[in-house]
Amino acid sequence: MGGEAVEIITGRERRRRWSVADKLRILAECDEPGAQISAVAARHGIYRSLVFQWRRQARDGLLVAEPVPGFVPVRLEPPEPPSPVEGASEAASAPVATSARRASPPPRPPAVIEIELPDGVRLRVGEEVGATALRRVLAALRG
């Protein structure tokens, strides 16, 4: 047997991908009263320089938490009555016979949702807009 060498790797040799949440949690630990950056870094198996790099990224706005979705108030209002068409003849506005009214109900007005965002932007969405499209629009307005 003889000249075989065994290399044991200990410490901080591995490369790990840290999530934004993990980075911010570690930075929060460093900001606690009495915390030492070297002790926090050692506890997580990282170099102090990496913590300082994350601090710089956070200070420069490059390392930020994902926005937490929240609820916004919703107010339902009855739909606005259709405005009369200008220049329409009086015959068109005459009352409809009772039997004709029972035969076909009047068309219902389209459903509309009005969303007012905290910054005052109002968004009116008809019922034909799908949930996926609405999510994309709201994400674009928030971003």
TrEMBL record:
One of its GO terms (molecular function) is transposase activity. One of its GO terms (biological process) is DNA transposition. It comes from the Bacteria. InterPro entries: Transposase_8, Trp_repressor/repl_initiator. Residues 75-111 are annotated as: Disordered. SUPFAM superfamilies: TrpR-like. Residues 85-103 have a biased composition (Low complexity). It holds the Pfam family HTH_Tnp_1. This is Transposase. It comes from Roseicella aquatilis. The lineage of its organism: Bacteria, Pseudomonadati, Pseudomonadota, Alphaproteobacteria, Acetobacterales.
